[in-house]
Every structure is written in C-alpha cells, then in structure tokens.
Amino acid sequence: MSDLDQTLAAVKARLKAYDGPRMRIMEVCGSHTSAIVKNGIPGLLSPKIELVAGPGCPVCVTPTDYIDRLIALSKEKDTCVVTFGDLLRVPGSSGTLMQAKTAGGRAAMVYSPFDTLALAKAEPETTFVFAAVGFETTAPVYALLLDQILKEQIPNIRFLTAVKTMPPVIDALCAGGADVQGFIAPGHVAVVIGADAFKPLAEKVQLPFGVAGFTGRHLLAAIDGIVRARGRGVVMNFYPEAVAQGGNAKAQALVAKYFEPGDALWRGMGVIPGSGYYLKAAYRRYDAGSRALQHDRPMNAACRCGEVLKGTISPKDCPLFKTACTPLHPQGACMVSAEGNCLSVYNEN
Ligand code: SF4
C-alpha cells in the first residue's frame, strides 16, 4: 500500500469512528455537492458528521426577477438573450425563458460566453444580451469577454449580470445563526480569490474552513481537517495543487478592472450587502439593467429553495420534492442545474 493509500485509509477509519460532538459541515459549492453524491461520501462518515449543501450553485441562487428580466428582454424588438442551457429552464415568477422562446421570444443557447461575439458580428442590427450568472470563478471570463468587445469595438452586446461572491453569503448565513460547525470552502472560487480570502471570515465566525478539490480523496481530507479543527477559526488548504494562498492575481486584476462590488439579491435569501459584482460606471453602457433586480417571487409559492439554500431543510422536506417538482418539471431553480441542491438529492435516490 502506498503512503497516500495508507493516509487515506487512516482518514476513512477516523471519520467512520468519530464519536465526538455532532458536526454539521456545509459545502458551499454546487460542484462539491454533486461530487459528494457521486463519491458516496455521506456513507463513509460517522452518523455524528452531517454534510449539508449551501448556496453554491449559481443557477439556484439567481432570483426570479433576473429570469423575468431575461424573459422581458427576449420579447423586445431586435433583442436576443444569450445564455447557458440551464437558465432556459429556471422558473421566474410566472414562467421560464424556454416558454418565452416557444412563444416567440428570442433566446440563443451557447456553450461559451465568447460565442456571443460571433452572434453579434453576424447580426449587427440586433442587441445580444448575455446572461452573466456565476461566482468569482466566472467573473474573470466575463471580464475577458468585455475586454474583447472593447478591443473589437462591438457595439451590440450587453450583459445582464448576476455575479455573486462567496465570503459575504457565508458571513450572512453565520450571522443568521446557521447550525453549521465548519465549511468546505469552494475549490474553484478559491483558485481565483485564494485560500487566504476566507481567513478574515473564519476568524470572525470562529469556524474551520477546508478548501477542497473535487475528488473523493480531496473531500475526505477536508472533512477530516474540519472535524479535527472544530471550534477554531482557521483556513486549511487541501487543494494546494490548484489553489494558491493569494489566488490568481491576473484574474483578480482583470475582474477589478471592469467590476465593482455591490449589494445583490439571492433567490430565497434576500439582499446580501456587498455580495455581487457589477460593471463599473465607465462600462455601464454595456449593462442591461443588472442593478435594478428587486423582487424574488417564486412561480410556485410552496417552493422552499431559500431554506434549502440556507441548509435549514433538506430538499426531501419540501412538499413538492419528487411530487410536483421533478427534473422534467422543476418548480424551483434548485431542481434545474446538475449542481442544484434538490437535483443532487433527487439523483441520490
Ligand atoms: Fe423548490 Fe423543487 Fe427544491 Fe422544492 S424540490 S425546494 S420546489 S426546487
């Protein structure tokens, strides 16, 4: 057995035999949620260690007003919404973008934000509005796209942004009394902002954070580290091959060039101060009204995405789970994306 295998075996044995105080650990990254399910991690843990998914799926946290605005834009003359596939199926307050498209609205699905460039060049009389959702991970991509738009002087692309940032939402969860004793910090986000970006928060809330990658080994190491650091406000980097303590300075500079922080509306969670990125005033002519998002009324009033995203209930506690709400007929955003909290639990069973 290699040294690595021996270490992993010891970690597994420790986590299975754990008999200390109850530990509820939140993963705040949708990719972690799906990796945890795929690797069967909960079955490897003591009953005293519970994993709970948080607000880490970008599609899930996008409020209904954002979807409503995409729908309204898709119906405007000489306008086409450009989006990733998931957003087409997310319910707004009264329907989806896909339904609007079927009824005559214009929405184009792309695999890369850069596909918008070719669309805009081919149809200069149409305004293409890119639906820019995501976290710190995707903000540099949107900044690069704007960089290219400016270089090529393309006049007919706009952004409707709903880009959110992780430390403020974790802070808000803790301030709201979240029953959590540690966090698996998002690996992809940490690649950009760095492991150290979570230090002030860890010290403030006096909880351990483990930055993790996306294999079973990464996740088990992070959970083990968090359990062993219980009660201490520390950040441990279990993904050093990808995450530098200070993050990616080039990506940070690119984001800072075009974006500035601002308050943001989260699905089911309200407005969280300083938790969004918006285009700076100098680039506001490329914005399609991102700062005006105000309401968050779910299409189905019984949808409990907000509580699911805060980790206060399991998707199974939602009365619509697997009844009215299924992957084919999602009633809330958490049942749409492959990283969605409800879809992950649906796929588990
Ligand atoms: Fe919303 Fe469906 Fe999840 Fe219930 S199961 S919280 S309706 S997405």
UniProtKB/TrEMBL annotation:
Transmembrane intervals: none
Domain of life: Bacteria
Coiled-coil intervals: none
The keyword Iron is annotated on this UniProt entry: yes
MF-aspect GO terms: 4 iron, 4 sulfur cluster binding; carbon monoxide binding; iron ion binding
Keywords: Iron, Metal-binding
Record NCBIfam families: hypD (TIGR00075)
Alphabetized InterPro entries for the sequence: Hyd_form_HypD, HypD_1, HypD_2_sf
Protein name listed in UniProt: Hydrogenase formation protein HypD
PANTHER family, alphabetized: HYDROGENASE MATURATION FACTOR HYPD, HYDROGENASE PROTEIN ASSEMBLY PROTEIN HYPD
GO biological process, one term: protein maturation
Family membership noted in the UniProt record: Belongs to the HypD family.
